[in-house]
Amino acid sequence: MKNQKKIGKKIKAFREFRNISREDLALKANLDESQLGLIEEEGSVPSLGHLIKISRALGVRIGTFLDDQDKIGPAVVKSGEEKVSLSFSTKDTTPREHLNFFSLAQAKADRHMEPFVVEIEQNNESDYKLSSHEGEEFIYILEGSVEINYGKEVYLLQQGDSIYLDSIVAHNVHAAGNQNAKLLAVIYTPV
Fold it and tell me: Is the per-residue pLDDT at 83 higher than 70?
């Protein structure tokens, strides 16, 4: 929860530094002002799509809100030393935290891609909320089965399968069947 609150504090700090009202940022990021308030004040974690929209509206890369430090040169992450997990929820205010992200490049300054290992917890929901954002995503399945709703299509991917998609198309990634899954995701968002 500590890392989740950091995201909201960083968003608020960047917003205030740029002298942007909460109302204006919510409008630019296509969020409800009350939802932005929950993010900034209560530590509510936005969906990845909304976090990207907030970063674009503030003119910073998404990693700005996820980084603990900046490092010049390569960022090496040894197996088992991934940075602390973050769970992203949907636009709903009720938590549906089933995607746990482990950053593989938190220490790298000025990066243009965001690589993550993502653990997907089995979820019995059937009304998956689709979201979209600018950029592209590459997803490689490490363990289990993953279903990806992409526009009007549905793709079932198994261990070793991959997909490269345009993030602007509404999509949702979730575990298929009654098992957890793990994937490598590399997300690119234009600055």
Answer: no
Residue pair 51/132 in contact by the 8 Å Cβ criterion: no
Fold entry, domain 86-188:
Jelly Rolls (2.60.120)
pLDDT digits (tens, 9 = 90+) for 110-163: 678 889 999 998 877 766 788 888 889 999 999 999 999 999 999 999 999 999
Q: What share of the chain is helix, strand, coil (3-state, %, to 5)?
A: 25, 30, 45
The three-state secondary structure class of 136 is: strand
pTM across the whole model: 0.66
CATH entry 1.10.760.10 includes domain 2-66? no
Alpha carbons 159 and 68: distance in angstroms, whole number: 31
* Residue (of 31, 89, 82, 91) closest to 185 by Cα position: 82
- Give the start-to-end residue ranges of the domains of the chain: 2-66, 86-188
pLDDT at 108 over 90: no
